[in-house]
Amino acid sequence: MTGEGEQVLDYPIPSAAALEPPAEWARLRQGCPVARVSLPSGDEASLLTRYDDVKRVLSDPRFTRQLSAEGAARISANESGGVFNSSLATALPQAGDAHQRWRRMVGKWFTARRMTALRPEIEAMADRLIDDMVARGDQADLKASLGFPLPVWVICTMLGVPDSDRDRFAHWSDTLLNLTRYEQAEIDAAQAEFVEYMAAHIAAKRAAPGDDLLSELIAGTDAEGRRLSDAELVGTGMGLLVAGHETTANMIGKMVAMLLADRTRWERLLADRSLVRTAVEEALRFDANPGFGMPRYIGEDAEVADIQLSAGTTVVCSMAAANRDATAFDGADEMDLGRSPNPHLAFGAGAHSCLGQALARTELQAVLDVLLRRLPTLELAVAPDDLNRVEGLAVGGLRELPVRW
């Protein structure tokens, strides 16, 4: 698979600082594009770090998400593999026509046009959260005060669930996304509660529909007149709650941290607000702490970067390492707030690219616009090197983001 005697790296690869990429990324891209890594479970997989390889594998239907396949590497130390191999992952069609049908039905809610219409509400909520934050003093944890509650409110509103339940969602999603913290019994119990909650919520929506995504999906049909099954509706609701808050909440914190770590970036945005859209895209590309990456399973022999992969290999695509590939991006290790075009892979590629990327972009742009308007003097309250990563999560983030203004 790789050269004889090639060192097996522990994965995820640690980094010296929360906002900095692991030094190994550059070495692997140059000299070992298909690297042997040991996952949290102890199983081995092949890590891809080059832009072209990652994009091609994510777009290749032979590389599947069937991580429950015989011989597939287990991602985490517990049996479930967390979000990558849970009842949530298997409730939804993972490939082919069925997956595309599901995406078309759900994707109608995530068009750029709909997200643009939602933006004034998102900005108003961001304003309210900043009001509360400022009322408490002149410094705060931006992740806890704004980064986390805003996406939770947005996705709860879209799904028609009360955001008073958000602490329960936080626990349920953590059991799905944390690869190291929980015992199997805790994961099973939390997931059973989550399924029960979502099934009851869907039953209530069926009885009394509202103006929300789940109500529309319950009533909606595809081009052939078929409806989503109850299992698909439950899986969709769970998946959107998890993906819709955890990833964006963490990205808000990381984006603001990157912009404040070198304050000339923040000053440039204050001077030219038209850069907000491209600055968000560049923060997504430049993010060195995105979490695990995308695992894929190949059930037949294949070749990547002139390396033969045998059937049964699990491949991990590091989109973040690919996003720092100098063959794809000029000045790849520089944060260029005006970079355009910016074909980064933060949302994946191919048939499984992130369904909610228009929503994520809208939230990130709205938060950044409101922060620039409301808190132009915003700065980090600690040195960038003193920021701490969240450990063990399938999605990367900062434990907290201390700021002052």
Automatic annotation (TrEMBL):
<dbReference type="GO" id="GO:0005737">
    <property type="term" value="C:cytoplasm"/>
</dbReference>
<dbReference type="GO" id="GO:0004497">
    <property type="term" value="F:monooxygenase activity"/>
</dbReference>
<keyword id="KW-0503">Monooxygenase</keyword>
<dbReference type="Pfam" id="PF00067">
    <property type="entry name" value="p450"/>
</dbReference>
<dbReference type="GO" id="GO:0005506">
    <property type="term" value="F:iron ion binding"/>
</dbReference>
<dbReference type="InterPro" id="IPR017972">
    <property type="entry name" value="Cyt_P450_CS"/>
</dbReference>
<keyword id="KW-0560">Oxidoreductase</keyword>
<keyword id="KW-0349">Heme</keyword>
<dbReference type="GO" id="GO:0016705">
    <property type="term" value="F:oxidoreductase activity, acting on paired donors, with incorporation or reduction of molecular oxygen"/>
</dbReference>
<keyword id="KW-0963">Cytoplasm</keyword>
<keyword id="KW-0408">Iron</keyword>
<dbReference type="GO" id="GO:0020037">
    <property type="term" value="F:heme binding"/>
</dbReference>
<keyword id="KW-0479">Metal-binding</keyword>
<dbReference type="InterPro" id="IPR036396">
    <property type="entry name" value="Cyt_P450_sf"/>
</dbReference>
<dbReference type="InterPro" id="IPR001128">
    <property type="entry name" value="Cyt_P450"/>
</dbReference>
<protein>
    <submittedName>
        <fullName>Cytochrome P450</fullName>
    </submittedName>
</protein>
<dbReference type="InterPro" id="IPR002397">
    <property type="entry name" value="Cyt_P450_B"/>
</dbReference>
<comment type="similarity">
    <text>Belongs to the cytochrome P450 family.</text>
</comment>
